[in-house]
Amino acid sequence: MFSAITIPCARIKSCHDLDPGFKLNILMMFGLANTNKEVLVGGEILNGNTSDKTWNNAFIQNIRKTLCQAGIEDIIYTSDSSFVTEDKLTLAKGDDKAPKTIFISRLPGNFNLEEELKLSALSAPEAWVQVGTLHDKKNAAIYKIQSLTDFLYDIPYRFIVCHSNHLDGRKLKALQAPIKRENDQITKAVAELEAVDYYWDEDAKSALDKFIAENPLEYHSLSGKTTVEEKVKKHSYQGRPRKNETKEVETCIM
User: Fold this and answer.
1) What pLDDT score does 158 carry?
2) How many CB atoms lie within 10 A of CB 146?
3) Calpha distance 33→241 (Å, rounded)
4) Class of domain 1-106 as given by CATH
5) 198: number of Cβ within 10 Å
6) Helix count (H) and strand count (E) of the chain?
7) What is the pLDDT of residues 104-124, one digit of tens each?
8) pTM higher than 0.70, yes or no?
């Protein structure tokens, strides 16, 4: 596992001693890569105007090829959220000329997918995996995670949603509110649908299909099936049934 960063250095004034009237400001950057055990595996001296994104792309490609030539293929690249751009992800995907790069990064909060993944995880509480605390400090945060698969720039990825019990209560409430609202609305609508009896199976199935089509859900899944039940037929007059009256049974599809 390795990561790469760029470090800007102080400005260096050159030629000033030779000609006080001439000033040339040079800003250098160091591009460094290290393993998860903080062992330096590569580095470059860069122009101060070098873009992190430009250098990162080229460096990943070069070091990946170098390590493969040395017989090291099982590597994982770790980076912050700046790695999650379309060009970098396309490069990491690999092709016939360059090998695939396995990486771990953080999905930026300004992606719509980030919010969608959180809501999907909250809507499936049974899928959480308890991790516990990461250290022995008193009142340490307790973590749980959930694994989800989705697409980003048409490329499938595995996403890990991490939850801490120290999460701001207001943020958690804001995430749970739309889930609860949708659940209440669809529960009421389903109850109204179930209260209707049908006498033909095709009519019942048609009504069910129409109901599902007209109620698209964002945080829940909706499915159903028709069932056949026998019910006592209501008498045609008002009041209580007559004494010794034979009860008629009718078949309904629900």
Assistant:
1) 95
2) 20
3) 87
4) alpha beta
5) 16
6) 5, 10
7) 999 998 899 999 999 999 889
8) no
